Amino acid sequence: MPYASCRTKCLLLAVVSLTPGVAAAVEPLDTFSVSLGGYVTRFDTRVRVDGQTLGGTSIDLSKDLGLDPDDMIGFAGLTWRPFERHEVGLAYFRNEVEADRRLQRDIVFDDIVYAASATVRGHYGIDAVEAYYTWWGFLEENWALGPRLGVTWYRVELGLELEADVDGEPVADGTLDDTVKADLPAPTLGAAWRWTPAEDWRIVADAGWFSTEINRIDATVTYARAGVEWHPWARVGLILDYTLSDIDARTEREAFTGQLQLRNSGLRMGVLYRF
Fold first, then answer.
1. Which of 74, 97, 124, 257 is the most exposed place for a label (fewest CB within 10 A)?
2. Per-residue pLDDT for the chain (275 aa), expressed as one digit of tens each?
3. Domain ranges of the chain
4. Cα 24 from Cα 22, distance rounded (Å)
5. The domain at 27-274 falls in which architecture?
C-alpha cells in the first residue's frame, strides 16, 4: 500500500505539472519571450526632400497627399535574458499606404515641381527594426529597474507620380515620377521598469531620449512605452500597451537631403509566449 500510495501521488503531481491551465506567479523578468500581435497605429509625418537646385516643400503626408495616417498593422518581438541582469530584444513592424490626391498647392519634391490642381499618386512605406539592451541594476522579487539603450532603424520610402495635369487630363505613366529612400537610425538612452503587482499581472514601462549629429544626420529622438500583461496560463499571456516614437531629423546624405518629422503612436495588442 505505501508503494501504491507513493506512486499515485507521483502520478498526480506529473499530471498537474503538465496541465496547460495551471500557471505559476509571473515574475518581473522572463528568460525568453516571443510576442505577436496587431498595432493600431497613427503616423503623423512631414517630409521635405531637397534637390540639387531647388529646396523642397515641407509635405504633410495626410493633409497634402491624402495618405491615411491611421492603420492596423502586425508586429513581432522577442526578448532574451542570457544572464540574470542582462537582457536584449528585437521588434519589427512595417506600414505601407498609397492614395491619389488633387494638390491644393505647388509642391517641390527632389527638384520636381508638381503644380497645384494636378493629381498625384503618393506612396509611403516604412520598415522599422528595434534593438535594445537593458541592464537590470535593481532586481527585486516583484520589480526590476535599469538603464536601457535602444536603437530603431527606420527604412523610409516616399514616392510621387503625376496622374493628371492641372486640367484633369491623364498623363502617360512615368511623365513625372520620383521616389526617395532613406535609412534612418534612431538611438535612445533611458530606463526600463517591470512590476508584478499581482500573481498573473505585470506592468511594463520603457522611456528614452537622444539627440545626436552623426554621419550627416542631425536628429532628436523620443521613445516611450507603457502597458500591462495578463498571464493566466503557464507560458502564454496577453499584452496591451501604448507606444510613442517621435523623430525630428535633418539629413544631408546622397540618398536623401532634407528633413523628416515622424511621430508614430498607437495601441498594441497581442499574445506573448514566455519561459
1. 74
2. 444 444 434 433 433 333 344 445 799 999 999 999 999 998 899 999 999 999 999 999 999 999 988 889 999 999 999 999 999 999 999 999 999 999 999 999 999 999 999 999 999 999 999 999 999 999 999 999 999 999 999 999 999 999 999 999 999 876 788 999 988 889 999 999 999 999 999 999 999 999 988 778 899 999 999 999 999 999 999 999 999 999 999 998 877 899 999 999 999 999 999 99
3. 27-274
4. 7
5. Beta Barrel (2.40)
